[in-house]
Amino acid sequence: MLEEVSPETIISLRLILAIILLTIVALITKSDFSINLKNHLRILLLAAVAVFHLWIQITGLKYTTAANTGWIIGTAPIFIAILGFIFLKEKLNSIKISGIVIAFAGLLLLVGKGNPLNIDLVKNVGDLLVLFSSFTWGVYSIINKKISLNYSPLMTILYLFILMALIIIPFNINQKAIDSVIHLSIVGWISILFLGLLCSGVAYVIWAYSLREMESAKVGAYLYLEPFVTVLTAWLFLKEEITALMVLSGLLIIFGVYLVNKE
Question: Would you list the domain boundaries of the chain?
Answer without folding.
Answer: 7-261
